[in-house]
Amino acid sequence: MQAASAPPSAPAARRLFTALFPDDAACAAIVAARAQWQGRPARERPRPGRLHVTLQFFDAVDAAREAAWRQALAALRFAPFELTLARAELWHAPHGTIAVLRADPCDALAQLHARTDAIAREAGLTPDARPCKPHLTALRQAERLAPPPRLREPIRWRVQALRLVWSDLAAQPPCYRVLGHFGAGG
User: Cβ atoms within 10 A of the Cβ of 65, count?
Assistant: First the structure.
């Protein structure tokens, strides 16, 4: 009697998110702003290339839903718009205190968030039901940051596209892998 071979395993579900990444000038302004804050941790995270404003995040997306999501995002188009990070806040998150830069209210951003939520639903994903609080995490492990940091001036960039990103925690070191650019520039 011959042993049955194991069926090929399905690809592992991946941590995926859509996000808006600042251009080089805005990224430099964010790094310069956080350098002024007192009580920063010795290791400043996230690193500049990982700074972003998340639109949607899903912890475990299987291959079929990922493919459907990518296909739906491919049809996304939006007019470029300016995103303004205007104020810093400290948030107490499950894994420690973080310093965030909050985005000014922006109709174009709210509409993009609503559209990308709808696209995620079309792909069989369930977006977060909580109200969106557009922000960029400027520092993690910010427990000693005091008082809440202030920006000397707002940080702006022109949003041209959004990215679909795989947060690959199994890589050494963990990294972001961009799976696509979509929207105005895409």
Answer: 18
Query: Among all chains, which residue has been given the structure tokens 């990224």?
Result: 27
| pTM for this model (two decimals) | 0.89
Query: Crossing angle for the helix pair 63-74 and 107-122, nearest 10 degrees?
Result: 140
User: Among candidates 105, 76, 81, 100, which has minimal Cα distance to 90?
Assistant: 100
Q: What is the mean pLDDT of each run of 10 residues along the chain (186 residues)?
A: 51 92 97 92 90 95 96 95 96 91 97 96 93 94 84 95 94 92 74
Residue with tokens 């609080």: 133
Residue identified by tokens 């199994």 is 170
Q: CA-to-CA distance for 14 and 10, rounded, in angstroms?
A: 12
> What is the average pLDDT score of the chain?
91
As a whole number of angstroms, the distance between CA 46 and CA 51 comes to: 6
What's at 70, amino acid-wise?
R
Q: Can you read off the two tokens belonging to residue 93?
A: 């998150």
